[in-house]
Amino acid sequence: MTRHIACLSFDFDAWSGLTARGLTTPTPVSRGEFCAVAVPRILKLLERHAIPSTFFIPGIVIETYPELTRQIHDAGHEVGNHGWTHFPPSTLDPADEERDLLRSSDLIETITGRRPTGYRSASFDLSPVTAQLLEKHGFLYESSMMGHDHSPYYIRIGDKVDPKERLVFGRESDLVELPVSWNLDDFPHFEFLRTPQQLMPGLQWAGGVLENWVDDFRYMHQTEQWGALIFTFHPYVIGRGHRMIMLEKLINALEGMGAIWQTMEATALEFKGRSRR
């Protein structure tokens, strides 16, 4: 059966991703607070098109906006684990990473009534033990890696990586990877960000980004019988007026190609069913 799935995922980071970069003054904090304006806009758009989606929310953001998190859940969307803060797991020691993972899952369960089955790391940057922790604590899927563009796969655990030697593959786990791409993430395209270490110019023309995103789905549509393309949005990025218009244009274009809208959990389960695992 031909099925071309589109997952619209939203990293509801608010100010946490900016403060994790050391941007703690009032203006960057207010920039992140725009999420509180953008999330209701996004929920209305998703409702209008009857699209179920997945929101990844750090624990400290859930604590700050519990009512918005409940609105997301009550609207039928999945809430995934995005750690406790927006510090990448690669910067944490294993004990702190596990504590934050469980603390976030506990809070999500308090809000939604069930533990999350999916995880996405801050800045798409896993630590060497993240996959083992997700496997240990019964997660279904992870979505931070980039080993394919539109085909989920099973995560390997225990790769041996040495810059001077060949890559030695570890064992294949039962943890599903729903792969992402910076190309399909709104942040690098649109956000101007200046820190002492870097400058991200962002602020690209939305029409060009839209064309790339539509063509990535079109390529999957033309070349695969079954596939799943994962889009990553940030409410304070995509929620600005002209980008909301662009997002609806994306939805309309993908609907015109027969896109099937699913949560990421549903997509991971479908992939497992297809692979009989």
Mean pLDDT: 96
Q: Any guess at the CATH architecture?
A: Alpha-Beta Barrel
Q: Quickly count the helices.
A: 12
Strands, count: 11
How would you classify the helix and strand content by structural class?
A: alpha/beta
CATH fold call: TIM Barrel
Q: Extract low-pLDDT stretches.
A: none
Number of domains: 1
Radius of gyration: 18 Å
Helix proportion of residues, in percent? 40-55%
- Outline type: globular
Q: Could you give me the name of the CATH homologous superfamily?
A: Glycoside hydrolase/deacetylase
- Give the N-terminus to C-terminus distance in angstroms: 19 Å
- Write down the CATH class: Alpha Beta
* H/E element sequence: EHHHEHHEHEHEEEHEEHEHHEH
Taking the sheet with the most strands, its summary is: 5 strands, parallel
Describe this structure in words.
- Helices cover 44% and strands 17% of the residues.
- α7 (130-136) links the parallel β4 (118-119) and β5.
- α9 (206-223) packs parallel to α11.
- The longest helix is centred in the middle third of the chain and has 19 residues, at 94-112.
- It has 12 helices and 11 strands.
- The chain is globular, with a radius of gyration of 18 Å.
- The two termini are 19 Å apart.
- It has one domain (3-160, 168-275): TIM Barrel, CATH 3.20.20.370.
- Strands 1, 2, 3, 10 and 11 form a 5-stranded parallel β-sheet that branches.
- The chain is α/β, with parallel strands linked by helices.
- The mean pLDDT is 96.
